């Protein structure tokens, strides 16, 4: 039977003639040197060009190699120069004349800092790149062009050369003369390469006589000649992993020969002209080819090594045809770190008559199957005795240890039990692969069918799918169908299938409909996998070791390189993995965690509670995330030990106590901010304020204080914002606070916003306009000459009073209404205040200058002087006296007519009718002198031209201090209030009766 070959083209690019190729040992790169003098680096996974170098224009670059440990490429061309480049920076490291004629070949020593170069000058030279590229040895002996060089992988001090003088010579780097010469070709030899697999002392050569010869360099004889090419053989090599010899020819073909039987297995022709170069990467299945018309990279064979492990920890693996065995149980008592390479002792178990392409234990571990070269052999696992054999392209075991099946061809499947054939059938489609497990799976290019092992009856047919692999759980209840793009987790209902078969009903073409149910789809590309209970463990394309329980995927580890799952051993609680070079590592798998998750998915909460104490503390957080994903947030909060995760859960559950406790422990501004926002949203004002303070969330505090009318909080926030440099917050606070407008101006000036300060002063503090205009001018003068000229256009009311009509009246209004605004109203009056404001606005738009004209000079002076005296002499100790005087004053005023009540209703006081006495909150009144406004230091201010006639006034107002238990929250943005004006009065005057409650001395009373 022919060798089963899986050949995939990974790269195919078009270019000028490719004279040499080299594959990078770690990156997915191939280096191609061209006849036109350029060198290209291609990524054979992405199909993109990585780098390009113009080495020697119009001179062919016949050879180029990677020096990966130095991140270099070294080239040899027809201009006799060797050039060295850094392939990352593209910097030229070195350039020197190496030979007297064309340079044909360069090879790099695998360990030492040496390269060898050969030339048409018939010399081979050794160069040491760690010693300034010194030529340390010259090898002389050929009588024609030296076309090819190859290192001996078994002894890297030796190398072989091929020449057009029809000879192969073997050399040592310590001697300038050859050890011996191999002769046999009738024409010039173009290529030579050593056999790297097994112990055979072979090398191979290809020549212009169209022949490929295999030589035994110990006996110095030709052991085989391969004939088949129709033109010169330009390049030959051994496959690094498979028993294959590859030869490329000027006939445009690449032929694959079996290295043991020397049978021609396959001929490849990609229609790209002559084959000029070939290279391979040791330890992989990649082969690079250089053609007349471009570069091709092939992957021949699979990367998964032929290795298998039984439940007892015995590992059997193949090194070419040799079989070896190791025992994991010797490491069970050792402390092993996750990902640490296991140091295992191995022994020779024997050899195999076929080349092992797959190697598998049966379910009880007593037998091992080997499949390859179109045959299968079953050996005993301990003695390695041949138990059975036959023809097979593929071999699979059943769940029953005594059953197995083989795919003899695309049209014939055979089932065996106890080494005897029980069934043989021909599927209704072309069988491209088979899978073992609880059912026998057979796939075509677009169909998957499951058959019964006992009867070979179809159980279920699944259309439009062609899986790469199928993994069954140990109890046969679940299976994972792996496709190119995703993996489907299915549940198999054995009892349903058994009842259907026992019922005697005929099975249709599509099988039993209720045999399977799709549980979950993993949108990932999976390499290898296995089941532990109901948990599916797998390695994806990104080299992540994951497991899936239900619909939840958890990453166990990020692997440094791609690995292959072997087995889970319950006695060690570890997963065992192997790389393609058969290095075995292990990872801890907490079965208690998986059991807990499985119980949660099944709804067995009591069972999960019993398992929870067995789970290690370092796994509690993963359990908490799993519980959260399943909707058990309260339980996740109990289980989690991660403060960040617990805080997130507490926020989601609105558990303020736990969240506050965690925030205090972590002392995180972010946590306090989140908690503050949550507390604010559910009305926990005190907690919200504390959290926002700790988080220094000034915008949040501004929202909180303005919403709750917290005057003291606004004052503190203003200072804090000023310290933090958040002038916008400070400005808003001062704008809302009573008599703090001057601080707003200071903020604008400190920020250099003098123009804004001037306009604000014109609107709110007209007395400050001259100062602000002068500062604005000075700032413009310091900016530029044009701005200095523009500053002359600015005028202030002192120098140009004609441009500021009613400026004196606006100053008077500023002083008057600032004094009135010192009275703060309780928030309990807000609804009445809002209603009165709406009534007032319905009548007309408010004009403060018109209102100030209605105030007599006597009333104006009385407001200012009385409020000033109150601010200086009144205090908490006088509250009782004030309250006692309030009643008598109100009674005396009730007999007077209130002609100005509508005016003061528009101000910051709560007024009443002449028949009602009201009170205000026990709130300290801010002094009008507390503001550093220049108005209070500017001396007398002229009265406006228009004066109202003096009238008897009778006003009833609330006292300044009220001991009654009412709401003391403050309305920070007082809005004008309009009360109904008495119909018996026609000319309004200011209501100043509240001044009667202020204790004054005798002289001040005489002023009124």
List the helices and strands and how they pair.
Layout: E1 7-14, E2 18-23, E3 29-34, E4 38-43, E5 48-54, E6 61-67, E7 72-77, E8 81-86, E9 92-97, E10 103-108, E11 114-119, E12 123-128, E13 134-140, E14 146-151, E15 158-163, E16 167-172, E17 180-183, E18 189-194, E19 202-207, E20 211-216, E21 221-227, E22 233-238, E23 244-249, E24 254-258, E25 264-268, E26 275-280, E27 286-291, E28 294-300, E29 307-309, E30 314-319, E31 322-327, E32 346-351, E33 358-361, E34 367-372, E35 375-380, E36 386-391, E37 394-397, E38 403-409, E39 412-417, E40 420-425, E41 433-435, E42 440-443, E43 447-451, E44 458-463, E45 469-472, E46 478-482, E47 487-492, H1 494-502, E48 516-522, E49 526-532, E50 535-540, E51 544-549, E52 552-558, E53 564-569, E54 574-578, E55 584-588, H2 591-601, H3 605-611, H4 620-629, H5 633-639, H6 643-652, H7 656-666, H8 669-681, H9 685-695, H10 698-708, H11 711-724, H12 727-736, H13 741-750, H14 754-764, H15 769-781, H16 785-791, H17 807-820, H18 830-843, H19 848-853, H20 857-873, H21 879-893, H22 901-905, H23 1002-1007
Can you give the mean pLDDT?
Answer: 82
Distance between the termini: 128 Å
Strand content: 25-35%
Counted by DSSP, the helix tally is 23
Q: What percentage of residues falls in helices of 4 or more residues?
A: 10-25%
Strand order of the largest sheet: 1-28-27-26
The main pleated sheet reads as: 4 strands, antiparallel
Characterization of the model:
By secondary structure, the protein is an alpha+beta fold. The strands form 14 sheets. A four-stranded antiparallel beta sheet has the order 1-28-27-26, with no helix packed on it. α11 packs antiparallel against α12 and α12 (727-736) packs antiparallel against α13 (741-750).
């Amino acid at each position: 039977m022919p060798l089963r070959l899986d050949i995939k083209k990974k790269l195919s690019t078009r270019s000028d003639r490719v004279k040499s190729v080299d594959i990078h040992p770690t990156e997915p790169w191939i280096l191609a040197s061209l006849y036109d003098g350029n060198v290209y680096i291609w990524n054979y996974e992405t199909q993109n060009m990585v780098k390009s170098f113009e080495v020697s224009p119009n001179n062919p670059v016949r050879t180029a190699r990677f020096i990966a440990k130095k991140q270099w490429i070294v080239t040899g061309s027809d201009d006799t120069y060797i050039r060295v480049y850094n392939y990352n920076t593209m910097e030229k490291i070195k350039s020197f004349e190496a030979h007297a004629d064309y340079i044909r070949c360069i090879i790099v020593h695998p360990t030492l800092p040496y390269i060898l170069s050969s030339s048409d000058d018939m010399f081979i030279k050794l160069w040491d790149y760690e010693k300034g590229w010194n030529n340390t040895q010259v090898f002389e002996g050929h009588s024609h062009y030296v076309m090819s060089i190859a290192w001996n992988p078994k002894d890297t001090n030796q190398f072989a050369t091929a020449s057009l003088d029809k000879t192969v010579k073997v050399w040592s780097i310590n001697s300038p003369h050859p050890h011996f010469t191999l002769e046999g070709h009738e024409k010039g030899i173009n290529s030579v390469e050593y056999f790297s697999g097994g112990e055979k002392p072979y090398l191979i050569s290809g020549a212009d006589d169209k022949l490929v010869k295999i030589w035994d360099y110990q006996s110095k004889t030709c052991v085989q000649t391969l004939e088949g090419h129709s033109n010169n053989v330009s390049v030959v090599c051994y496959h690094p992993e498979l028993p294959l010899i590859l030869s490329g020819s000027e006939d445009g073909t690449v032929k694959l020969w079996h290295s043991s039987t020397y049978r021609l297995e396959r001929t490849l022709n990609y229609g790209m002209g002559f084959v000029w170069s070939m290279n391979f990467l040791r330890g992989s299945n990649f082969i690079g080819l250089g053609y007349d018309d471009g570069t091709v990279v092939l992957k021949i064979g699979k990367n998964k090594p032929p290795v298998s492990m039984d439940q007892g920890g015995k590992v059997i693996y193949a090194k070419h045809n040799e079989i070896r065995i190791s025992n994991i149980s010797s490491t069970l008592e050792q402390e092993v770190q996750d990902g640490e390479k296991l140091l295992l002792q191995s022994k020779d178990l024997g050899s195999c008559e076929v080349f092992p392409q797959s190697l598998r234990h049966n379910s009880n571990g007593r037998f091992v199957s080997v499949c390859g070269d179109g045959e299968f052999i079953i050996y005993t696992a301990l003695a390695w005795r041949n138990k059975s054999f036959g023809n097979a392209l593929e071999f699979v075991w059943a769940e029953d240890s005594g059953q197995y099946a083989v795919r003899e061809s695309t049209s014939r499947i055979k089932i065996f039990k106890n080494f005897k054939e029980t069934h043989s059938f021909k599927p209704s489609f072309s069988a491209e692969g088979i899978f073992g497990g609880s059912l026998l799976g057979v796939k075509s290019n677009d169909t998957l069918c499951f058959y019964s092992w006992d009867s070979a009856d179809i159980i279920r047919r699944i259309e439009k799918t062609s899986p790469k692999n199928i993994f069954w759980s140990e109890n046969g209840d679940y299976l994972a169908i792996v496709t190119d793009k995703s993996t489907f987790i299915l549940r198999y209902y054995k009892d349903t299938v058994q009842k259907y078969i026992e019922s005697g009903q005929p099975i249709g073409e599509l099988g039993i409909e209720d045999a399977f149910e799709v549980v979950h789809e993993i949108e990932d590309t999976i390499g290898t996998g296995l089941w532990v209970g109901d948990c599916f463990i797998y390695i994806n394309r990104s080299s992540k070791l994951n497991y899936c329980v239900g619909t939840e995927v958890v990453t166990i580890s990020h692997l440094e390189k791609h690995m292959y799952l072997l087995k889970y051993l319950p006695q060690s609680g570890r997963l065992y993995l192997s790389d393609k070079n058969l290095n075995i590592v292990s990872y801890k798998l907490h079965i208690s965690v998986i059991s807990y998750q499985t119980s949660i998915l099944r709804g067995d909460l009591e069972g999960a509670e019993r398992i929870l104490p067995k789970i290690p503390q370092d796994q509690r957080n993963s359990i908490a995330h799993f519980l959260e994903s399943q909707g058990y947030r309260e339980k996740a909060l109990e289980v989690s030990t991660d403060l960040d995760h617990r805080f997130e859960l507490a926020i989601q559950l609105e558990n303020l106590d736990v969240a506050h406790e965690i925030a205090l422990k972590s002392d995180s501004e972010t946590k306090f901010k989140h908690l503050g926002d949550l507390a604010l949203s559910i009305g926990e004002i005190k907690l919200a304020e504390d959290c926002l303070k700790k988080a220094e969330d000034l915008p949040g505090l501004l929202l909180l204080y303005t919403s709750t009318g917290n005057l003291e909080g606004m004052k503190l926030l203003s200072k804090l914002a000023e310290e933090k440099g958040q002038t916008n917050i400070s400005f808003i606070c001062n704008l809302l606070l009573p008599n703090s407008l001057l601080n707003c101006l200071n903020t604008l000036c400190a920020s250099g916003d003098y123009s804004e300060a001037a306009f604000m002063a014109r609107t709110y503090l007209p007395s400050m306009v001259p100062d602000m205009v002068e500062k604005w001018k000075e700032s413009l003068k310091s900016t530029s000459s044009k701005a200095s000229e523009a500053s002359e256009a600015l005028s202030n009311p002192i120098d140009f009073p004609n441009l500021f009509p009613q400026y004196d009246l606006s100053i008077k209004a500023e002083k008057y209404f600032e004094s009135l605004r010192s009275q703060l109203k309780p928030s309990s009056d807000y609804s009445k205040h809002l209603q009165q404001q709406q009534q007032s606005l319905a009548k007309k738009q408010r004009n403060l200058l018109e209102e100030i004209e209605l105030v007599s000079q006597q009333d104006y002076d009385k407001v200012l002087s009385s409020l000033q005296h109150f601010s200086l002499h009144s205090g908490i100790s006088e509250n009782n006296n004030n309250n006692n005087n309030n009643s008598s004053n109100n009674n005396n005023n009730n007999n007077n007519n209130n002609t100005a009540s509508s005016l003061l209703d528009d101000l910051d006081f709560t007024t009443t009718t002449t028949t009602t006495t009201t009170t205000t909150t026990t709130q300290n009144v801010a002094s009008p002198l507390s503001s550093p406004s220049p108005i209070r230091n500017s001396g007398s201010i002229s009265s406006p031209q228009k004066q109202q006639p003096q009238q008897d006034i009778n006003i009833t107002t609330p006292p300044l201090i009220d001991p009654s238990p009412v709401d003391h929250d403050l309305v920070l943005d007082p809005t004008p209030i309009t009360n109904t004006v008495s119909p018996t009065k026609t000319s309004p005057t200011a209501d100043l009766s509240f001044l009667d409650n202020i204790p004054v001395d005798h002289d001040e009373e005489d002023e009124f």
